[in-house]
Amino acid sequence: MTLKFIDEYRGARQVRQLADEIRRKTTRPWNIMEICGGQTNAILRFGLDELLPRELTLIHGPGCPVCVTPIEMIDRAVAIASRPDAIFCSFGDMLRVPGSEKDLLRVKSEGGDVRIVYSPMDAVGLARANPDRQVVFFAIGFETTAPANAMAVAQAARLGLENFSVLVSHVLVPPAIRAVLDSPHCVVQGFLAAGHVCTVMGTGDYLPIARQYHVPIVVTGFEPLDILRGVSMCVEQLEQGRAEVENAYGRCVRPEGNPAAMAQIDAVFETVDRKWRGIGLIPRSGWALGEAYRRFDAARRFGVEGIAADEPAECIAGEVLQGHRKPRDCPMFAGRCTPEHPLGAPMVSAEGACAAYHRYRRRAGTRETHE
Length: 371
Ligand code: SF4
Known about the structure:
Elements: H1 2-8, H2 12-25, E1 30-36, H3 37-46, H4 48-51, E2 56-63, H5 65-68, H6 71-81, E3 86-90, H7 104-109, E4 114-116, H8 120-129, E5 134-141, H9 146-159, E6 164-171, H10 173-182, E7 190-194, H11 195-201, H12 207-213, E8 217-220, H13 224-240, E9 245-247, H14 259-268, E10 269-276, E11 280-289, H15 298-301, H16 317-321, H17 353-360
Parallel strand pairs: 1-2, 1-7, 3-4, 3-5, 5-6, 7-8, 8-9
Antiparallel strand pairs: 6-11, 10-11
The site of iron/sulfur cluster has 14 residues, from helix 16.
């Protein structure tokens, strides 16, 4: 069924040519992890893995920002959003991520003022328009969302907004790659790095990883052609025994990244240890507000820093996010856990592997991408 989607893609002919090229150059089994949930979604949607030789296994990585936000951060968001003086602002896909007892959508249905915004600057605007309310923005995501979130905080400081704050749960890709490689169960031999992250941060952070672990890392985009080009370059390196950082997304990514965006991040955030949902603490894998902007920290302002929670044992999201297990390996998949009634975040987010399998691979018989 998935194969019909690739024929609807305008670059279908070039995709099939690239798949043939990959087949010709693949001489033995290789495991390649795509980091980004957007890439996972495209692979499953267009059936790209089904076009590849059977020797090639694509493993899904932890790059879904909604999926890796820890459950206790949802509980903190719920506690703040339940306050009668708060306007809690978030991107829409965070509203259905389950906390320990409820999600933000439930808070909204119970009368909480939870609003979906499309930019952190919308929340700054709400703070200006509602000086008698506390406006809080849920600042989650990888390096891609951090510049705009940092800009919003800096703007709130310039405007002297005392009623604006951010609940920060930013995560970083390079430490996550190291965590995947350090796992005793790791079978990943090459990576497709996320093109949008590298558009912001450049490629420099990946050089020591490629050298230390001897793994090829290919910066890759999100269209089917981009993804297969990244796979092709990664296979070529693996077959030749090379482990280099290469860029298959040159139309967006420069080695130095976006210096203005990085300067904005550096001005507002500092690197901290961060807990990842289902995975646990990864050293120096996140950003929090630095000293100069700490007064905008919603967790401190509303005294919710101490809220801690354990992940539900029935959800194996951590195993899925590290590529150790497939969504269909989870006993809850498509039974007790569905997009309508999710038990874990990967079944909620548009970038979550469980949601993607539910949408495109629910039927048995279609090829698994991690065998
Ligand atoms: S199917 Fe549901 S319960 Fe299982 S790992 Fe995915 S999100 Fe968690």
